[in-house]
Specification:
This protein is α/β, with parallel strands linked by helices. The protein folds into 2 domains: 114 residues, no CATH class; 177 residues, 3-Layer(aba) Sandwich (Rossmann fold). It has 11 helices and 16 strands. This is Class I SAM-dependent methyltransferase.
Length: 317
């Protein structure tokens, strides 16, 4: 079986030899599916799409074994939101990163309130080049999920991000708001280093987190500075909660400790509007077991619950 993907021609892309070498972990000798740049791979019964990066060379190919393809096809029709924590263990984070790093994004459909939201290859390429930190070319599914959630907002919606030390998630959410053509803006509370009690990381002269310049640089690189209100405050302080009384999208990625995460969720989950989306980073991570235990207490507040990598998300009842 031979299938492939249509991608726009890019004037400059990675060297084909280096690109092929990145594929080595996925090359297999048995009956395989060949994905090249000239055709589209699509399984109508499972509704999944695989896309090569826009800047992939014309000669780039990827061979995926039947067993790996079966895992991918088994993800399901809801796309990103159907990546459950109990997914086939062979579909490891390493495999996921390899797929993303060589330019494949899967799946690309998000279903919310019965309305599917399909991500185009150009959107994926735009996200990867504007969101991914400079030291990596991979676009994490967690950031893709944040983008899609923001993209689904309408009208005068509001989004709130707590934490996110390098600004990539903030950029993804802001780009999603931009693509939604809504009037929504993102409030980004940067208090992660206080949450972690890493007071030595706070610039003593400016009393600001040492990561703040990098965050501002990333927002500028993504072209979303005007869409983001950056606050350097305690996320649970009354002046913040008074300023942002309700939200349609909440993304929590600050401290993963028991006390601070409990405080964040207690303060902000009640402020998520009905049919709004709440996302919490670190769920299912064995190194951070408190995240799962704390978030699980609030599952009764959501009409559905899904995970993508270590990102938990639910739609508020």
């Amino acid at each position: 079986m031979t299938s492939a993907i249509t991608r726009p021609v890019c004037e400059q892309g990675p060297n084909p030899e280096s690109f092929d070498s990145a594929l080595t972990p996925l090359l297999v000798p048995d009956a395989s599916v060949l994905l090249s740049r000239d055709l589209r791979a699509r399984r109508l019964d499972a509704d999944w799409l695989l896309y090569l990066r826009a800047d992939a060379p014309a000669t780039a190919v990827l061979r995926i074994s039947d067993s790996a393809m079966a895992i991918l096809a088994g993800i399901g029709t809801c796309g990103v939101v159907s990546l459950q924590s109990q997914i086939d263990p062979r579909f490891t984070l390493g495999l996921m990163r390899n797929l993303l790093d060589v330019g494949l994004v899967l799946p690309t459909t998000w279903a919310r309130s019965g309305e599917p939201c399909t991500i185009t290859p150009d959107e994926v390429h735009n996200l990867r080049t504007r969101v991914a930190p400079g030291e990596t070319t991979a676009l994490e599914l967690e950031d893709l999920s944040a983008y899609v959630a923001a993209r689904s907002l309408v009208g005068t919606s509001s989004a709130l991000l707590i934490g996110g030390r390098r600004g990539g998630t903030a950029s993804a959410i802001a780009l999603g708001l931009q693509a939604s053509h809504s009037d929504a803006k993102l409030t980004f509370i940067c208090d992660q280093e206080w949450h972690r009690q890493q007071l030595e990381a706070v610039d003593p002269t400016r009393k600001l987190p040492s990561e703040l310049p990098r965050i501002e640089e990333q927002l500028g690189r993504a072209g979303v500075t005007e869409l983001v209100q950056l606050l350097v405050k305690d996320s649970c302080s009354s002046d913040v909660t008074d300023e942002v009384p309700e939200v349609d999208l909440l993304y929590v990625d600050a401290s993963h400790s028991y006390d601070t995460l409990s405080a964040d969720l207690t303060a902000w989950l009640p402020r998520v509007r009905s049919n709004g989306i709440a996302m919490v980073h670190g769920y299912g991570n064995s190194l951070r077991p408190t995240v799962s235990s704390i978030f699980n207490r609030h599952l009764g507040s959501f009409s559905n619950f899904n995970t993508v990598q270590t990102l938990a998300m639910g739609t508020k009842k």
